[in-house]
Fold this protein.
Amino acid sequence: MTIGNNQKDRILIVDDSPQNIQLLEAYLTAAGYDVISAQSGDDALLQLDSGDHPDLVILDVMMPGLNGYQVCEKIKESHDTQRIPVLMLTALTEIDDKVKGFEAGADEFLSKPVDKLELLLRVKSLLRTKHLNEDLESARDVIYTLALAIEANDPYTRGHSERVAQYGALIAEHLGLNEEQIDVVRNAGILHDIGKIGISETILQKPGPLTDQELIAVQDHPAIGEKICKPLRSANLLLTVIRHHQERYDGDGYPDRLAGDEIPIEARVIAVADAYDAMTSPRPYRPPMSQRQVLGTMRREAGSQWDPEVIRVFLQLIEEEREMPRR
């Protein structure tokens, strides 16, 4: 049975044994892959540091100098290489050894002696996942660019999402949220209003009050944004924040009338950051409100429109005169 590859993916083999490298190279080149090699962990990291990255690393565990676990950790710690899949090879059979490999960031584990068919199946699977993730990352870049481009064409909202992202990340950090949650808040801040692409500019830039029908159209933008962002790699974390950033703490928001802790904490953070920037910025229907007016509104509405703990942290940041993003 032949398992081929339509793309010329490049694979880095790292093994201190020339015989092992030759065997793996024979298997992989016959299947249509380009192969490069390194006989030590240090040599492998030098190749990776050169910037010409392989599509996959096959990494032996037991090597002199840096062992496979250490090399894997360094690959996964680097922003430039962390998305390269790592397949670790070892003659070790203890489950703890494999656990240690996965803890180091390995994507897959294969025992020696290597079975050709199993090797090629694992390689093909890892590369398929990598390319899928790359396609989704490309979709993310397009969506982020679209979100900022939409804003840039409107003098009333130019820079709004970037400021919301910065405010939100600052609030999230001081609430004690973890790094993953802070990143979700930052990304959701950029994307929270992308659903407004589906709403008429006549409505968005109307200088007077909205009709009931126009208000319903505006209230569709969180659900529209959720649909637009579904292709994102991190969609599961972002979608609920985009969908629920207009919910109210008292349950009188939209689109799902969630209340209190039913609303994801990241969405509660974005709601405060979004409201602050919107109220202190000019809109077609009103001039910007003064910071004094805005903070007074936020204090009064804490516990009804907004999460009181999020408001408390935000007001503390304001009172401490932390630098906020400038318009």
Remarks:
- The beta strands are 10-14, 34-38, 56-60, 86-90, 108-111.
- The chain is about 55% helix and 5% strand.
- The first strand starts at residue 10 and ends at 14.
- The chain has two domains: 10-133, 153-319.
